[in-house]
Amino acid sequence: MGFPERLKELRLKKGLTQKEVAEEFGIKQPNYQQWESGKRRPSSETLEKFANFFGVTMDYLAGNDEDLDNVELLFRMNSKGLTEEEREIFKKELIEFMEERKKAFGK
């Protein structure tokens, strides 16, 4: 699920219309609609405001999954040059971190 879908999903979960969210942020409804339809993308500053408003992380709102499926990719990207023992420790710590993060954000 990408940013536009997440934005819409979070808005609907709060029971808000596009117009209500736009008014909350002091923007025009057509501008908000373009973000939700994927025609435009907000600035990182606006993305952060949306994340705070909806009570989620910027990563989640941006469409990045925060689950253990990404552990293997993160592990491969960050474990080059480590010994086998270091790789095992790193992988274990990465899994623990992702599980704690998931609990903290209720996912």
From TrEMBL:
Q: What are the alphabetically sorted keywords of the record?
A: DNA-binding
Q: Which Gene3D superfamilies match?
A: lambda repressor-like DNA-binding domains
- On whether Phosphoprotein is a keyword of this UniProt record, the answer is no
Q: Does the keyword Transport apply?
A: no
Q: Where is the HTH cro/C1-type domain?
A: 7-61
Question: What is an example of a GO molecular function annotated in this UniProt entry?
Answer: DNA binding
Q: Which PANTHER family match?
A: HTH-TYPE TRANSCRIPTIONAL REGULATOR XRE, TRACRIPTIONAL REGULATORY PROTEIN-RELATED-RELATED
Kindly give the NCBIfam families that the UniProt entry links to this protein. phage_RstR
Q: Any idea what this protein is called? A: Cro/CI family transcriptional regulator
* Source species of the chain: Streptococcus pseudoporcinus
